[in-house]
Amino acid sequence: MERFDFVVIGGGMMGAPCARHLAEAGHRVALVAAPEPAVKAEWQGPFGSHFDAARITRQVAADPDWALLSQRSIARYGDLEARSGQTIFREVGALMAGPTDGPLAGFTEGFLAVAQSVEGAEILSAGDIWEALGLALPDESEVCLERRGGGWIDPRAMRHAQVMLAAHAGARIVPQAAVARNGDVVALADGERIGGDEIVVATGPHAGSDGLLPLVPSMKVWARTIALARISETMARRLAGMPSVIWVPEGWDHDLYLLPPVRYPDGHLYLKIGGQLDSPRIHSAADMRDWFHGTGDAAVGARLMTQMRELMPDLKVQATHTEPCAVVWTDTGFPYVARVAEGLTVLTGGNGAAAKCGDELGRLGAMVARGQDISGEGYATDFRAVWVP
């Protein structure tokens, strides 16, 4: 049985950078990273929501800790691109808009406060945005437009870069799923076993149901739906200046997100929209497989498309469809980056924001796995884990 200093289980937005940071620090590392399924409906292994073409990235957030996680990650995008040859980041700008009163007033106050310290962030009105971008935000919206540092990333390219650089630093990449853990030994889907002085479980939404931890992390896993609108090349050129957008529709009690035109693997250009306050819960590995074998919730997709058209009244759409996604919400509102026991670390709980700040979360996970104290890293939260009693 091959042994390593560290075995990182999960090659997603947090696990892959964790393995890279550990390998580049000179440790012997194995990264257990199941591949993207060729045929989704036939795949019986773990699914990753990061198998996607675009995720919003931005320096501004409603919470200072989330903003710092993003800012530190964004500052390293260029290095990752230069060393891997991958194109990860599209700096098209990022817009956040919210109401000044009601239940989401605190959300707006939070991102406006953070924006004061972000270079290139402008505070504008809904009228300014209509004039500049043709986006019909609610009239009373307060708006932050981050022209530099914001935009979108390609999560597949990010994952590929992290895995490639981990391998270049000497990590063994294991392209399959982990099916069990017994102490310091991890059993793989093909029957092989590998050992590690420290095991890092970074399996995202699966961490509560895959049995790799001795305790169950207290977190909610939601079955989410995204909607995609296919547009023409001509329409995409008209939207060439469009930033990524997060906004609260008139009278809504939660925000939505919208990405600018992105070319997907099928060759078409799409606008992607998502955002739900509530949705079905995922409780087991079977629930997760069933959800990802489907195409999402058509009714949710229709509501999302209605809001896209209200925001973009001049939009011409060729076709629409929905896709499934999964989001993890922890009890603390922050990722769990913590030692579980001697030789075991948990790194999970993206709270819908792991893609843009995964590199920093991976770095923190690597520190915890090495037994280092992260309390001096500048965050108000301690990234503690909460467990189901």
TrEMBL record:
The keyword Hydrolase does not apply. Gene3D superfamilies: D-Amino Acid Oxidase, subunit A, domain 2 (3.30.9.10), FAD/NAD(P)-binding domain (3.50.50.60). It comes from the Bacteria. This is Sarcosine oxidase. Residues 5-364 form the FAD dependent oxidoreductase domain. Keywords: FAD, Flavoprotein, Oxidoreductase. Coiled coil: none annotated. InterPro entries: FAD-dep_OxRdtase (IPR006076), FAD/NAD-bd_sf (IPR036188), MTOX (IPR045170). One of its GO terms (molecular function) is flavin adenine dinucleotide binding. Its cofactor is FAD. Pfam families: DAO.
